[in-house]
Design a protein that fits this description.
The protein is α/β, with parallel strands linked by helices and 162 residues long. The chain contains five helices and five strands, in the order E-E-E-H-E-H-E-H-H-H. It has one domain: Ribonuclease H-like superfamily/Ribonuclease H (Nucleotidyltransferase, domain 5, 2-Layer Sandwich). It has a five-stranded mixed sheet with strand order 3-2-1-4-5, with helices on both faces. The chain is globular and about 40 Å long.
Amino acid sequence: MGSLLAVDVGLRFGLAWFDQAGRLHRYRSQHVPNRGVLRRAARAALDEEPDVAVLVLEGGGAIADLWRSLAEGRGLRVLQISAEDWREELLLRRERRSGQAAKQTADGLARRLIEECGAKRPTSLRHDAAEAILAGAWAVRRLGWEAAAAPDGPIPPPAPTS
């Protein structure tokens, strides 16, 4: 089946790797000065886990196109989403009222997921890494991978819509 890499795209980007059981096992934030350096960094990120089968991109534009091109050249499945996709499923409506509130809630939810999965705790967690984690968690649910995880599961249940 392979693993999953989720990316919050940008020149400052977040990365989150999920194993074949849908468990978060690694994440980080990285900054590059331009698209040329980004291309090399994206190749390196894709090379870090030899069994990546799915790339989840949160965001669009030329930078997402760069990631998509690299992934498709490797035969990876690509899911391109917006923050609203995962926020609608993982955050309460009141937590989505503003971008600031959503980012703050995302930080706490990502930290909870890190704890539940036993991944290394962050000394600091940048919002791009937190959003990559949650985009990946959303994709794991959509792909049905969480069924292979522990009974209590690493992915929080969907938030009520009220």
